[in-house]
Amino acid sequence: MRSDSSNQSTEKGKHNRLDEINILKNIEVGPPAGSRTSDNCSASVQEGWLGHVDESSVAVNLRSSGKSSLSLMPKERNVMVDDSSSSRNGGEANSLTSNLENISFAAKSGHSNDANPGRAISRAQYKPEKWMLPEKAEQSLTQLNLAIVGHVDSGKSTLSGRLLHLLGRISQKEMHKYEKEAKLQGKGSFAYAWALDESAEERERGITMTVAVAYFDSKRYHVVVLDSPGHKDFVPNMITGATQADASILVIDASIGSFEAGMDGTKGQTREHAQLIRSFGVDQLIVAVNKMDAVDYSKERFDLIISQLGAFLRSCGFKDSSVSWIPLSAVENQNLVSAPSDFRLFWYLGPNLLDAIDSFQPPTREFSKPLIMPICDVIKSPSQGQVSACGKLEAGAVRSGSKVLVMPSATIATVRSLERDSEACPIGRAGDNIAVSLNGIDGNHVMAGGVLCHPDFPIAFAKHLELKVLVLDGATPILIGSQLEFHIHHAKEAARVARISLLLDSKTGKVVKKAPRCILAKQSAVVEVILQEAVCVEEFSKCKVLGRVFLRTLGRTVAVGIVTRIVEEQQ
Fold first, then answer.
1. In this structure, are strands 397-399 and 451-453 parallel, antiparallel, or unpaired?
2. Burial class (CB in 10 A: 0-12, 13-18, 19+), 483
3. Where's the Tr-type G domain (predicted)?
4. Which terminus, N or C, of the chain has the lesser number of Cβ atoms within 10 Å?
5. What is the enclosing helix (H) or strand (E) of 387?
């Protein structure tokens, strides 16, 4: 995860993770547990850790699950659909979060924080219309975007599928179909996972490759499940899920050897996923210790996992009070939606998984800010001259007839219709995952990695950026001239490190050295990068979701950071 406040002031409140230490604390600024703001333009922010991205594809394809059937989102970045349908069918214990928030770049680097102050009206001057704000009397459930993350084969899709089935989102008839198909391929234990892993390749390989989207209702929330892949080859796809998340479930395989493999510093994804979701501002976490049946529901094993993983999560900036530990077995339906029935779990007296989800604090949404929606997917219907942009509304609101600015083409389009949870809806507001059907625009001007925004408040488009970055533990040094992959929201570009301006102290954030020749592992620095092509971007202080960046090379994330200044904006 996503996610949500996008504006940051240079002055951090006292609540800015005073207890978060070490390397992981170096980059993100997020509100305290239970009061996270949405990843959009807010006046004051706290820095939250920024995580990793893989190089394969950032414009990730989401698959959505409807009420009673799991319908597919587009499989490609720009998907051609049947013209008859215009809608979707459907670590070390050094923390990575604090030092980078300790320096004011306007003062330290000698540059203004806005390369083009006259580019747009100040967002502070924006006044939302009445319809954009939710009615106080509305009784609808609060939407909670929940990312399911964890090491490959930890049981994420099986857990998600079982939960959907228990809550009535997958019918018994459909479940029987999945069980039959799984047995025919000799993968009987994958039946619940197949409710979400629907592609032939995913089923053949037995792994999740794209982000599957499903929905269920709890007592407090309308939960959007973002089932993310755990394989290291599909880190970008996992990123897309994490960027949209309000909270997360980190799934752990309790089996002997499997937990240890996930915690391995070089190949395990447990550490990386924990760092990633914290980097996106997610500070509420459930650790679902799955496959407890494989260790006879051993309390000793459970306590060992808490001891080892808990220390790492604290180093990432998670507070103990914001992390719930739930022992369970998805296959045996133990402790998912009701108290465990297996006597071997007699020692556990805490909540079940569903109750733990309901214990999350509701996210704060930026309803009163100008529209911002990073585009994750695009659906085209050429004969009807229609194109739909899919993504999460990070700020503001939109409805049929609204005029929107499509970046980077800087083209005005009219909203024809909206879809949420595979159903038509009259209004989309901050926090909603929607498909926006557009009129009056060439489909080629709408692309994944772009942004829908308010016509009076255009998003910047730039290729020369100043970043505050943290080089991750074990990563190769970053040199002037290093060629890297630059990832930001749903966009990816080749980048070159043009300048290393300052080296920062990892604990205090103070300047240690000016113009260093390289940045080593665990070091923080201010750098300038020049991208091969411009991207939609904002300074992190103005819009968090458009200001988080990830630098990768040779299949590994080497640094995470935030955009501190747009050096030169494209016209």
1. unpaired
2. exposed
3. 141-371
4. C
5. strand 386-392
**Do 428 and 436 meet the contact criterion of CB atoms below 8 Å apart?**
yes
142-359 matches 372-453 in fold: no
Q: Which CATH number fits domain 142-359: 3.40.50.300, 3.10.450.50, 3.40.50.880, 3.30.565.10?
A: 3.40.50.300
- pLDDT band of 421, cuts 50, 70, 90: confident
Q: Sort residue 407 into left (φ over 0), alpha (ψ -120 to 50) or beta.
A: beta
Name the DSSP letter for residue 413: E
Computed from CA positions of residues 169, 174, 180, 185, in that sequence, does the dihedral angle turn out positive or negative? negative
User: What does CATH list as the number for 372-453?
Assistant: 2.40.30.10
φ, ψ of residue 423 in degrees (nearest 5): -130, 150
Q: What are the C-alpha distances in Å from 10 to residues 46, 117, 444?
A: 9, 17, 38
Query: What six digits make up the tokens of 356?
Result: 């733990």
Q: How far apart are CA 67 and CA 301, in angstroms?
A: 37
The one-letter code for the residue type at 161 is: G
Q: Per residue in 383-406, pLDDT tens?
A: 666 799 988 999 999 999 999 999
Taking phi first (over 0 means left), then psi (-120 to 50 degrees means alpha), and beta for anything else, what does residue 317 get?
Answer: left
The mean per-residue pLDDT over the stretch 365-370 comes to 91
Helix (H) or strand (E) holding 307: helix 299-315
From CA 478, how far away is CA 488, in angstroms rounded?
Answer: 19
Write down the CATH number for the domain with range 461-566: 2.40.30.10
458 touches 409 (CB < 8 A):
no
Q: How far is the C-alpha of 540 from the C-alpha of 518, rounded, in Å?
A: 24
pTM confidence score: 0.73
For 130, residues 6+ apart whose C-beta sits below 8 A from its C-beta are: none
Q: Which residue has the tokens 């290093």?
A: 482
* pLDDT at residue number 276: 78
The strand pairing partners of 500, in sequence order, are 527
Residues forming a β-bridge with 527:
467, 500
Domain range summary for the chain, segments of one domain joined by +: 142-359, 372-453, 461-566
d(CA 564, CA 553): 22
Structure confidence by residue, pLDDT tens digits, 462-496: 999 999 998 877 788 999 999 999 989 888 899 99
State how far the Cα of 105 lies from the Cα of 118, in Å rounded to an integer.
20
- List beta partners, residue 464: 530, 568
- Residue 296's pLDDT band (cuts 50, 70, 90): very high
